[in-house]
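User: Please fill in residues for this 693-position structure.
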């Protein structure tokens, strides 16, 4: 790269003013002539067959254009994604499954009519309760994204039996719901056999591919635009059901159709984080050196399609141990299919392992920070290869110093003031630093300006701004002379904002395209043709060459809580995280990602829980009034810092991705602090007051 001027600068988002003035358009906000509105109808039984659909009352509502159901909807291809195969068959696989779609002239008419659609069902018995004793638990062929189900090294039985300290602990986490601010929403329009969709998703290229297969079109006949996306947290990866149904409805009524799920409808049919049951066994010597670690997990999937959350994967790479086993078992239940949610696997898995390490620290009487340092390793325990970089120790040291950890009295329940009990706790953090191939183009113009194009997705992270900074530095020009376009399948192909791969993947292609343009301009000795000069570059080969290196971002999280000794009320007073996430492109947007993740982790520790009623096969809470997320008064002080983290084996910019690591370990740090305050160990989230009294 040329002289750095933009990378490292705390720029505010390029689209910030558009967003706060309402000029930025989201999926159902584009003005579209003759647009109609769709509203979905959900099944009221858990499992069965639809025997009749009564639509007369709905069709009698003024302005209603159609009621689509399995008996009359256009056909789509089978075998693409079973959760998108809706209105194609009478089968109900879970309560809340979308079984009909009403289309009307207004959203109000559609909503009123949807209420009047009646279905008869032939109900069948169902199973919805997750249990580690379920005799039908099974071992999937692999876990997400395509990892081995079980990994075993050494002799865990002998290692555990021989260990001086033995811990055998059971942790549970409930289901969680992504529920981003913008709901799952799409506007679909057909023109001459071409499909145009304005969509709220985390990557329009995969949405385009799936729609093309679903409607049996060549990919170039489908365009998906996601210029602005109001959050996703994993729940908008790939094509979701509302996109497919908007396209289906638009085809049926031969008009553009808008479909935005309501907040309530987002609790189920578009995915959620599976509940988990995790058994962790730690064997260690008296100095806290782990000799044996066993992490066995049980989660759920649906009968529709398999989703196997990689819960114990965190334990495969985080700390050293000679004897290791991680396993995943699944229950196939009559429930909606679980899906990705921020730091899938690592979030629930780190709650269990980092809580267990705190229990080990107490059992060995070793300081929790020191315990993690003693079990640190520069060699990936799973692959046996050296990590490309691992600055966990730096995060632990820096975090302890900033937090004031050294002053801590390790004895639980040792600090009280009035009715309040005070405590501190900490945990490690880690998330893979991966990249996916991408293509970008760069254009230079005679007026001295440049334009960079890549189908990246900015789901609110600031990705667009960071890429613009990278482009300016690579081109060696002031950023004011650079324009950037993202969020449209008409742009060069890139993959989704997910798995913390976005900035690493996209900036790699942007750098290569800008370098190529600089080379071409140098050949032309600065004489840009009147029509401009456009080049494109792809990273497929470079990315593939580095795919097998063990590359991770790390962190250390510290929490201070106070607990009301009389009521059990828990308040987090302070959260502090220090992270090693590679090179920092934009400190403002990086900090936002980190404190956002930590806040979500606080929410997981104290507030969030899908209250699943196994009798009715659905959640009792399915809106943001009853599904509690932490709000301003719950989050008094969240601090995020980072340490230098050079890694020449990552990508040209040296970024590791920071979208997910902020939530990894946070809940454990808080649970550990609650234990320190009260002496009560809560192994089942959330930490509600009833568990402390
Ligand atoms: Mo993240 S759950 O990979 O969008």
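Assistant: Residues filled in for all 693 positions:
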């Amino acid at each position: 790269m040329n002289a750095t001027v933009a990378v490292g600068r705390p720029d505010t988002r390029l689209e910030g003013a558009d967003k706060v003035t309402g000029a930025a358009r989201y999926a159902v906000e584009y003005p579209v002539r003759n647009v109609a509105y769709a509203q979905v109808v959900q099944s009221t039984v858990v499992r069965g067959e639809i025997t009749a659909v009564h639509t007369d009352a709905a069709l009698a509502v003024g302005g209603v254009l159609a009621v689509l159901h399995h008996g009359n909807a256009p056909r789509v291809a089978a075998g693409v994604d079973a959760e998108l195969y809706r209105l194609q068959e009478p089968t109900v696989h879970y309560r809340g499954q979308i079984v009909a779609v009403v289309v009307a002239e207004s959203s109000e008419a559609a909503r009123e009519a949807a209420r009047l659609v009646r279905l008869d069902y032939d109900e069948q018995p169902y199973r919805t309760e997750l249990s580690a004793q379920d005799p039908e638990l099974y071992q999937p062929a692999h876990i997400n994204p395509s990892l081995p189900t079980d990994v075993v090294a050494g002799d865990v039985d002998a290692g555990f039996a021989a260990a001086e300290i033995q811990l055998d602990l059971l942790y549970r986490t409930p289901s969680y719901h992504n529920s981003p601010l913008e709901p799952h929403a799409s506007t679909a329009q057909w023109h001459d056999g071409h499909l145009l969709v304005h969509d709220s998703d985390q990557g329009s290229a995969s949405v385009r591919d799936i729609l093309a297969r679903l409607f049996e079109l060549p990919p170039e006949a489908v365009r998906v635009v996601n210029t602005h996306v109001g959050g996703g947290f994993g729940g908008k990866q790939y094509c979701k059901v509302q996109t497919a149904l908007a396209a289906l409805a638009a085809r049926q009524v031969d008009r553009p159709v808008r479909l935005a799920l309501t907040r309530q409808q987002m609790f189920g049919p578009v995915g959620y984080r599976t509940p988990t049951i995790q058994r962790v066994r730690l064997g260690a010597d008296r100095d806290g050196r782990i000799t044996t670690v066993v992490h066995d997990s049980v989660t759920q999937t649906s009968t529709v399609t398999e989703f196997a959350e990689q819960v114990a994967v965190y334990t495969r790479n985080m700390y050293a141990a000679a004897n290791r086993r991680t396993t995943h078992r699944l229950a196939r239940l009559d429930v909606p299919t679980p899906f990705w949610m921020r730091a899938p696997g690592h979030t629930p898995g780190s709650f269990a392992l980092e809580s267990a390490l705190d229990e080990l620290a107490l059992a060995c009487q070793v300081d929790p920070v020191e315990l993690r340092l003693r079990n640190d390793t520069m060699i990936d325990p799973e692959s046996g290869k050296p990590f490309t970089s691992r600055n966990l120790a730096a995060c632990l040291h820096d975090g302890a110093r900033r937090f004031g950890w050294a002053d801590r009295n390790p004895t639980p329940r040792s600090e009280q003031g009035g009715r309040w009990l005070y405590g501190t706790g900490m945990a490690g953090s880690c998330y893979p630093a991966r990249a996916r191939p991408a293509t970008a183009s760069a254009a230079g113009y005679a007026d001295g300006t440049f334009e960079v194009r890549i189908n990246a997705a900015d789901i609110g992270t600031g990705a667009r701004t960071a890429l613009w900074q990278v482009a300016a530095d690579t081109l060696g020009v002031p950023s004011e002379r650079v324009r950037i376009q993202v969020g449209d399948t008409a742009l060069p192909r890139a993959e989704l904002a997910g798995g913390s791969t976005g900035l690493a993947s996209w900036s790699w292609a942007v750098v290569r395209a800008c370098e190529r343009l600089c080379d071409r301009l140098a050949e032309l000795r600065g004489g840009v043709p009147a029509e401009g000069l456009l080049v494109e570059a792809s990273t497929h080969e470079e990315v593939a060459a580095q795919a097998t290196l063990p590359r991770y971002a790390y962190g250390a999280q510290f929490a201070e809580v106070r607990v009301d000794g009389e009521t059990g009320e828990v308040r987090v007073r302070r959260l502090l995280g220090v992270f090693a996430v590679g090179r920092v492109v934009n400190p403002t947007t990086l900090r936002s990602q980190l404190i956002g993740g930590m806040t979500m982790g606080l929410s997981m520790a104290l507030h969030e829980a899908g209250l699943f009623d196994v009798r009715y096969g659905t959640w009792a809470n399915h809106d943001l009034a009853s599904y509690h997320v932490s709000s301003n008064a719950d989050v008094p002080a969240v601090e995020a810092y980072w340490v230098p983290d050079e890694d020449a084996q990552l990508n040209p910019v040296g970024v590791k991705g920071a979208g997910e690591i902020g939530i990894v370990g946070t809940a454990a740090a808080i649970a550990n602090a609650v234990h320190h305050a009260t002496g009560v160990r809560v192994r089942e989230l959330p930490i509600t007051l009833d568990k402390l009294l």
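For context: Residues 202, 232, 234, 237, 340-342, 344, 498-499, 660 surround dioxothiomolybdenum(VI) ion (CB under 6 Å).
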